[in-house]
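Notes from hallway chat w/ T.B., transcribed later so I don't forget. T.B. wanted the structure written out for a chain they're using in a teaching module, and asked if we could keep both sequence and structure tokens in one place. Agreed to drop them here.
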Amino acid sequence: DTTFYNMALECDSILNVYKKNYGIDAFYLGNSISVANAFSTTDPIKTLKILEENIAAAEELGEIELLVFNQHELARFYFESLNLEKASEYYLKSADNYRHIKDYAAYGYSLVDLGNLYFVSRQFNVSKYYYNKALEIFRKYLKGSDLNYAEALIANNYGLIHFELKEYDEALEYFYRAFNFRKKSVRKNMYPHSYEYFIDVHEALGNKDSVIFYFNESLRIQEQLALFEDMANTLVKIGAYYYREDSLKNAISYLNRGKRLVETYEYHSFKSQIYWYLGLVYEKLKSDSAWFYFNLTYTTAIKYQHFEFEKISLEKMIQFHSNSSSDTVLISLYDKYLHLLEKTEIKTLRNYEVELQLKERKREDAFNQKLADRNKAVISLQRLGIFMLVLLLFVISFFILRLRSQKRHLVETISNRDITYSIIGHDLRGPLTSVFQVLQLVDSGMVDDEESRKRALYTSIKTLDNSINLLENLLIWANFQTNRQTEIKRLFLLPLVKQNIQLLENQASAKNIIFDLDVNDEHCLKADENMMSAIIRNLLNNAIKFSEHGKVVKIKSIESVNDLRLIIQDQGVGIAAEKIVEIFHNRKMISSAGTDKEKGSGLGLKIVSEFIKKNGGEIQINSKLGEGTEMILIFKKK
């Protein structure tokens, strides 16, 4: 491992010379990825720097294949560093780019990586979504053994989800399915990979005979195919299993077989692990050989930079020497342990325990110990005082915020009441009075010619239609102010849109306006049905109101990975940019007359704004004067 690291440094040096002489080109980008991966564990900052520089250079050079490869490697780096948000961002970018260059196999495997990412964060439904998308791609574009391998991978991942949920029968079913696909792909070297999952399930179910059977099958195939490194790994796992089952004689037998294999072929990655388990077995047997193997684990781990085994072997050696009288040796071990924790930046409660034990070993004066205890008591009292003060401030802040909230609610209630009275008093009473007066004139015979009567009746009907629409919005608004509860459920967009188009059919027919409907019948969202209906109805009503006769109103839906969008687009008069800002950011209601002088109160858009927020969505407006307006409702997927 040290030799590998030194070779990586040499490669990095050669590439830097190349970059200095020839600049960054495709050759440099292709080879620097390998160098970045080589530093991923020893110098992650360097890895990050190389990959980010490569992505910027590949974009500049237009090297799309190298760009997507570097994006995928950066996603993998963030995944291994458990920065899942960044990993998701770059996996999505690489997936989109693989699809763009029509490398559908890589696109599918990027979707699998996304599923794995959400598997780690235990969001299993999201994992299944990406696994299913990947499977669709694989079945469409892969054939033969490549397809069988991909099917095996997806089936295996489904098995892992059920295993994590402790649904062992379902897990075993998927693992067997994956194994059958591997058999079809004629990849015998992958059989032991399936056996590992069979072993995990059977161990969880307590089926010891099945566990041993699959371990032996793995060894048989690995030996047959001369996969000695895999064989060493299996021998370690068998030894660890027997150790857990307290079958110590068998554990020693398999671990010694593995030891001979790794020492013969110099498989450094397994040496520390085998020595560690041999130490644990001999510790159970209360044999002095345990400390020999723990010490051997420690020296091997230092040599090959196996930091985790270096740490746990040191802990065992400290435990052993804690019972001896050799304070010098113990303090030396503590110093090494603290140095290791600092080097690997492992800051846990164990660090502080070690520091405390080291200080206690060095203390000789009992008076200092009493003084330290007294200081601790003072600190505890200080902390208690600070805690009580913070608690008091929290309680005061809570009541202040509550009073402010109540005041704000009261102000809003009074404001909404005034708005309601204003609409009833002006926008509703005025038009109804006008209609009443016109009808009185007709009834009294003062409007004698047929043409004038028809015009008067048409105007009255139009005014009543607007008033009914206003009254309906007023009722919706009043109900919302008194009862702000929502009934969230799954809604399909298409029937909801069609229902509201039918309600507005008369208004649209009066202006010869045509609806162009392009809403997918599978698109759905979670929202309150009454509120969503009010939102769609008001936006469609505005589209009709501000459109000239004979125009088209387009309604379409678009779904992406992150959100669902409903777009209502008219060919009307448009909205000025400064007025768009006022519509949703001004507490006052903004109203304008329609193309046929239809009056409005501004209440409809107020309802749209409030109901969109209440259902967790947002609205965007794109508009140009004289060209029309596009209203976009955006609902994020949860």
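Follow-up for T.B.: Confidence is low (pLDDT under 50) at residues 346-359. Might be a good example for the class.
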